Amino acid sequence: MELGILLLIFGSDRQFRRVKAVKNTLRGRRTVSNLYWALQYGMLDFVDALHGEQFGDDQKTLTALKSQGLVDADDAFQIQLTPKGITQQQQYLNQLMPLKYLAIASKYDVAKFMQRFSFAVQIVSEYSYGNSKYYPQRIDYFEDQLLKRWFVQNKENDLPNHFHKELNDFLGDLGDDHLADTFTESLIGHHFSGLTADQIASQHQVPATIIELQWLQLYGKLLTNLLSLPKNNVFSMLTADLEKPIVSNSARETFDMFLRQGDGNLGLISKRRKIKLTTVYEHLLEAAIMAPVKGFPYQALISSDLMGQLRAHQPENVGDWNFQDASHAIPNLEFFQFRLFQIYRSKSTDED
Amino acid sequence: MKINLQSKLKKYFGFDEFRPGQEAILRHLLGNQDTLAVLPTGGGKTLLYQMYGAVTHQRVIIVSPLISLMQDQVSRLQYLGSKRVVALTSALDFQEKSIILNHLSNYQFIYVSPEMLANDQVLRRIRSLNVGLFVIDEAHCISEWGPDFRPDYLKLGKVRQLLGKPLTLMMTATATKLVRRDIIDHLDFEDGDVQQIILPVNRPNIFLAAKILPNQQEKDQTLIDLVRQLHGAGIIYFSSKSKAEQAAVALTNQTDRRVMAYHGGMDNQRRFHIQQQFMDGNLDIVCATSAFGMGIDKDDIRFVIHYHLPANIQSYVQEIGRCGRDQQPGLAILLYEPNDRYLQMNLIDNTIPEAGLLRYLYRHPKAITDDDQFRVIQYYFDNDYSLDQAAAIFDRSRQRRITELGSMVQYIYHDGCRRDELLKYFDEKLSTEDRNQNFCCDNDVDFWNHWQDFNDKYLDQQDDASKSVSRSWHEVIDQLFLSKN
């Protein structure tokens, strides 16, 4: 995917945003620093949404965006959209479905679902014509086994009609024939070989990245539709095990232990889990960033006295508060508590 | 046991006739005779062992050198109706590999890379199965004299012993006498033990032409002129992915043909779309690297153009063999400008380690095991070849490749019959009655001044009605799912 397009879509004209943080958020690098910036940019819903995608070179992209007058950039690889950049952003957003449909890819492995569903369509399509002589799509071993099991269990259930009806409803409900056509071109089946993203892109005169994003959104929506069907429907197996964890497993373990223990003794957690104390901090920060503000016990980690001091000194935009200034004002302040406070305040404002 | 093979062919695969050589090979195998088969590309090698498996219900192990090739073959076997097929390659992760190994007896056709067979666990598991037929595909890889020597193939003689010497089929598309001798020796056969079926390399329905251009600009222009006018579907081969992509864009913009690039750097889904479009006739031309071809089942490809020359004559013959499988006239054109030679020279330099690197790796053996590209070096290191011996082997290998490239270039500059020049490498000669002066090569007739006439006369004009029309989503889903109501 073209990084330039993603930077415009996720850029702002009111805030300088780190190129690396935007990119790493989308591809799911869950470092605390990335997640923290994702929180500040309002991008938490998109963490890992473009998992496994290849993006272009940062420097080249930045130079191109600047030379086209779409962004202003500072020395720290941060960008802010110019009015021309905002116009371009709006153009891209008009070509896409609402971004909430892209956010589905942050909670579910939509790319995997896309491969599965597209393969299932090929199998059912050829089956409906009674043709067993065809080249099957390539997919990894476990997915292949899953599809075989699914097909064996469901082939007596009039799959062609189910697929036809489900797709007819889904595509009809979109209310946009253009998008519906883009979806069906992603498919392969009996005497139908579909189109690649760049073939569709050149037909529609849009960048291929836009088509790839549309596909993710469309398949995300389709997945949500299928997940809402009554249990044990013919599509159930195709939607199984696609959920992504909101926090990493190790952060979850640390957080769960912290909640169970109840005494706030982080040293003990570090000992029990055989991880460094700084790692315990990182896990808790990750949990705080990803949990709703009421779901994280901030009071257990920041005393009311310290909370009061922090509130008294915080600048208007708490996200931009730097640790050096803060520790100047509040002696003995620890970075962990400082960052936790920033998260708390940012999330409280967001969720208000 | 006299089996009616024709009726089995019809029953299992729906074909009425065998391709040349297939029936004779199957008869040898069913008579329990080890066989070496030299069949041209597209000669139906897969069908041989698939049919053997279908008729005897026995298990077939197929050793194949390239992972990408293997996945194509798995697809191809599934395409031909066998579902119990699996490939054991280094592309599997640990979990996949353990599950497949635990369930190996469920599979009738097991593809395995030679590297995997070097793994004790894998070999032990295969030894515990009954193996009806042991197939060595691309058997020329065993020969140091062949262009694609793979040290792991040298262990196959030992593997065959360990498997209890099962019935063996060795297959290759191109093998000189020397290479055939090597294959038999390395697999510990006596000369008389092995039946050899050697089909001619010559494809009389493919016209051979080559053109030397002074520079790349003129070569590009010639390519555009050809693509604009040549009738039917075609493949254009490139040595570089980026050039294949650039050319696909240029040809799309400057001709009215439907052109796409295809190479190993693309994701699976995209490659699959392009492959299907080409087979369905929704794409006229593919600008490809050598990654394209194996999985393609398209009989009516009319021309193959080489924009870059391949590394050797064997590869050239394989690649041009993809046109005219329907026995209708086909055209093979090689475009060359003198700098192209250096591109191939660079490829040789990049694939054969130079003395300094070799010396370093011998001193730091851990670096060898860390990197898959050093497999060949690892083989010599593990087998106690000294640094000097290994260096001498690589030096010979480099020299051999340079010589092979020289022969390829010589073919281009050759002013006699190109067909004779090609066949010379396979110890094959055309008999007088097989010679067709009117349809042979551009040195026999004035092709380059009259190629448009050749095009109109020999290359089938495609029916434009078959060209794809864009369809609405309603039409697509109606087409995809045939309703029984």
TrEMBL record, chain A:
Q: Which residues form the Helicase Helix-turn-helix domain?
A: 250-341
Q: Which InterPro entries match?
A: Helicase_HTH (IPR029491)
Q: What is the designated name of this protein?
A: Helicase Helix-turn-helix domain-containing protein
Q: Source species, please?
A: Lentilactobacillus otakiensis DSM 19908 = JCM 15040
From TrEMBL, chain B:
What does UniProt list as this organism's lineage? Bacteria, Bacillati, Bacillota, Bacilli, Lactobacillales
Give a Gene Ontology cellular component term annotated to this protein: replisome
**Which top-rank group of organisms is this from?**
Bacteria
Gene Ontology biological process terms in this record: DNA recombination; DNA repair
InterPro entries reported for this sequence: DEAD/DEAH_box_helicase_dom, DNA/RNA_helicase_DEAH_CS, DNA_helicase_ATP-dep_RecQ, Helicase_ATP-bd, Helicase_C-like, P-loop_NTPase, RecQ_Zn-bd
Q: What are the protein's UniProt keywords?
A: ATP-binding, DNA-binding, Helicase, Hydrolase, Nucleotide-binding
User: Where do the Helicase ATP-binding domain residues begin and end?
Assistant: 26-193
Please identify the protein, giving its name as recorded: ATP-dependent DNA helicase RecQ
Biological source species:
Lentilactobacillus otakiensis DSM 19908 = JCM 15040
GO MF terms here are: 3'-5' DNA helicase activity; ATP binding; DNA binding; four-way junction helicase activity; hydrolase activity
Q: The Helicase C-terminal domain covers which part of the protein?
A: 222-369
